[in-house]
Amino acid sequence: MINEKKTNEFVVSKIIFPDKTKIISPIKKERWMLGDILTDAGKIPLIKTVLDKKDNIEHRQIRWNNKKRMNYSVSPGLYGVGNPVKDSPVFVSANYKLSFDILRESLKNFNAWVLVLETKGINVWCAAGKGSFGTKELNYRIKSVALEKIVSHKKIIVPQLGAPGIAAHLVKKETGFKVIYGPVRAADIPKYVENNFIKTEEMKKVTFPVNERMKLVPMELVPALKYVPHIAFVLLILNVFGSAPMLTETLLEIGLLLISIIIGTALTPMLLPYIPFRSFAAKGWILGIVSILPLIYIFEKGFTLVIIYLLLFPPLSSYLALNFTGSSTYTNLSGVVKEMKYSLPLMIVSIVLGIVLKIYILF
């Protein structure tokens, strides 16, 4: 039984199951909605498959603004594309709007259902690793929208990148729906559907080319740059007490700071396959040392200062490079945990030693 209550902003559907469990599923009215389609379980919102100008502007803003990115989400629930019917396929998505937009755009000219999971505004790949794009949430959404009343088949298509979070046998056991893992990239969905829902080897392949790596750079670079003015002020205050020229010393250290940030957030991911070692932390640390040594040499700094700078700045590059482990095909979840376990203490020790030596030579 479905009861609906209309408000200024939401249509709230209350679904009452045979066990009398009540589940409330709010769907916010958005500009990318076309209207509703009536099903045996109630009204389901229809969504556009063509992105508008505002969508494209938002996507650029999200890539350059980490704060907004964490709140860029859509309401979880079920949506329709085109003119879906009972035998239309069901595609599963995270509620990160960028992922949602990529999926709906790929479904242009198709009739389908889109089941959106609550992943706290995190994309499929990362949410699967964190557990929010997981079996429990998928089972809950299937039941909450009464999917068995809306479709005549018992199949749902989950992105291949979401596989780490989904236990297909448990979904089948609890809901009766069979999980089918679709292509890695949403752009391959049209060919996948035309190929009778069979993936080619190319559709199964996970790639991480330089252009995809560079798309992630603003998301790490912008937040890191926000701390530069604060750190520069601290360096200036410390150098007031030093014997070396205050302005020259401060400008050099700010320069080393900026270089370290660029190394960790841009140069390391760009050169990822060519830097020795598998560890992201090691890659960032090595590139950090190689990049700041020439600048230190040009300014002809003494041995003590050289040691201080090597203790302070390469670990920063290493830490920023480590952030890319969660969005890379070069490692897995257990590898990330292991790398953090050993690399973070080394970074902390190095930076603390650098700060202690810096204060020592000043006072």
Plain-language structure description:
- This protein is an alpha/beta fold.
- The chain folds into two domains: 177 residues, 3-Layer(aba) Sandwich (Rossmann fold), CATH 3.40.50; 153 residues, no CATH class.
- The protein has a five-stranded mixed beta sheet with strand order 4-5-6-8-7, sandwiched between helices. Strands 1-2-3 form a three-stranded antiparallel beta sheet, with no helix packed on it. It has a two-stranded parallel ribbon with strand order 9-10.
- It is elongated.
Question: What's the structural blueprint in terms of helices and strands?
Answer:
Elements: E1 2-6, E2 10-16, E3 22-28, E4 33-39, E5 42-47, H1 53-64, H2 66-69, E6 77-81, E7 90-94, H3 97-106, E8 112-117, H4 124-130, H5 135-144, H6 147-150, E9 155-158, H7 168-175, E10 178-181, H8 189-194, H9 201-204, H10 210-215, H11 217-225, H12 228-240, H13 246-270, H14 280-298, H15 303-322, H16 333-362
Parallel strand pairs: 5-6, 7-8, 9-10
Antiparallel strand pairs: 1-2, 2-3, 4-5, 6-8
Helix pairs in contact: 5-7, 11-13, 12-13, 13-14, 13-15, 14-15, 15-16
Short description, anyone?
This protein is an alpha/beta fold and 363 residues long.
Structural class: alpha/beta
Kindly provide the radius of gyration, computed on alpha-carbon positions and rounded to a whole number of angstroms: 25 Å
Task: Kindly report the CATH topology of the largest domain.
Answer: Rossmann fold
DSSP E strands, number: 10
Q: For this structure, what is the CATH class of the largest domain?
A: Alpha Beta
Walk across the major sheet and give the strand order.
4-5-6-8-7
Helix count equals 16
Q: What proportion strand?
A: 15-25%
Helix content: 40-55%
Domain tally: 2
Which stretches are low in confidence, meaning pLDDT under 50 for 5 or more residues running?
Answer: 1-26
CATH architecture classification of the largest domain: 3-Layer(aba) Sandwich
Q: In angstroms, what separates the terminal alpha carbons? A: 76 Å
The general outline is elongated
pLDDT averaged over residues: 83
**Major β-sheet profile:** 5 strands, mixed
